[in-house]
Write a structure and sequence with these properties.
Mean pLDDT is 77; it is low at 1-16. This protein has 137 residues and is mostly beta strands. It has a seven-stranded antiparallel β-sheet, with no helix packed on it. The protein is built from no helices and seven strands. It starts with 7 loop residues before the first strand and ends in a 13-residue tail after the last strand. The chain has strands at 8-20, 26-41, 45-59, 62-77, 82-92, 98-108, 113-124.
Amino acid sequence: MRDSPPLLYGQVYGVGRPFTDAAGREHPQGEAWQFLGAEPVEGGKYNVTELHVENYSYVSNTVVTNYIIEAPQCLIDPQQKTARSAGRIVVSRPDGTFMTTGIGFEFRQIDSLLNISNQVMTHLVRDSFNLRPTYSP
């Protein structure tokens, strides 16, 4: 019987490109990656369980969480800074104004690009966008 490699647990923090607000001011931005377990696989990649990614900005000396990505299982490639899976993903805002779910994804940390491939559903809370009707009832 072969010894299996140990599971790794951890958190990874990184600073991304600045966020520019409507007034043209730049604010530092970053991401925090957390996972319950990571098993090393061929090619320097890791099978990760319970991925939780938070993208945040610093606005007026306050940390603001922009969005959260959660996936029960995915493959992380630290060299390419990607996470991908054929499984479920949930992307949401902490205030509940936005949520997207789907099956199958690739997330590229380097440019914060997320592709969700199947069964994509999005829930938006209208009041959070200050939308007003363009017609009179």
